[in-house]
Design goal:
By secondary structure, the protein is an all-alpha fold. Helices cover about 65% and strands about 0% of the residues. It has two domains: about 5-125, no CATH class; about 160-265, no CATH class. It is built from eleven helices and two strands. The protein is globular. The two termini are about 40 Å apart. About 30% of the residues are buried.
Amino acid sequence: MPVVGDSLDEERLRALMVRPDPKHSDVEVSLALMDLVRDDLHKSGTEGGQLLADAEMRTAIRALESVTARAGYEFKLPFRDHAGWRAWWNRNGAHGSWQARRNLLSDLFDDTYAKLMAAQDRALASTLALPVSPHERLGWHEVDTEIGELRRHFRTASTPQDYRAIGNDCVHLTEALSRQVYDHATHTPAGEEEPPFPKTKIRLERYIEHRLPGPENAQMRAMARAVINVAQGVKHGGSPSRTEAGIVADAVILLANMLRRLEEEIEA
């Protein structure tokens, strides 16, 4: 995509402003550019520092706006670079608040990103499981991104190496779910340290136990644990077939939708 090694390919970005990429659809390029720009703005707004130089950011934003317009999902930012981003968040009540800046980024990006991801999913005509939920996206940026990548990779997978890569996608998705739902203050037993993100089985099982307590939820907890175990099993697999990789991918997507339903109950 637009990045080569550790540096931004500005020449390629300028080319994208006037014509499509020969190897990738405008929707796919739009998603990649949105991730690039949003990640930089998140870092500069909440962590300090930045991934791109100011000139690179201006080029990236121009390319993003050009490609999204060409894809039919026009997207505009109210600033052009890091200085503009800082001035804009100060004008919009986010001075001194990282959470307020994260909220501003969600307001700017989430709706268009969700539409692009849905368009990509439809174009790929994925054969993986679709949720019963009427929502096209879960509304969790990192999780939705990982599910989109999982669907895209499964669509084109054809070799044992490809199917092992599907397993890696599943692991990344479970880790994203772990980061999304696990709250140290709520889910870590008193006196213990928070389990690291890769300890997804521990983190997700603690979340499930907290959200589905009591004997009346025993079967639901067992089902959730079974899905977690299937997803975790791929870490130790050899050379899975397409069927095996598809079952694991379906299981992880099911898990994501189960957890989202539990969170919706909290948010309601």
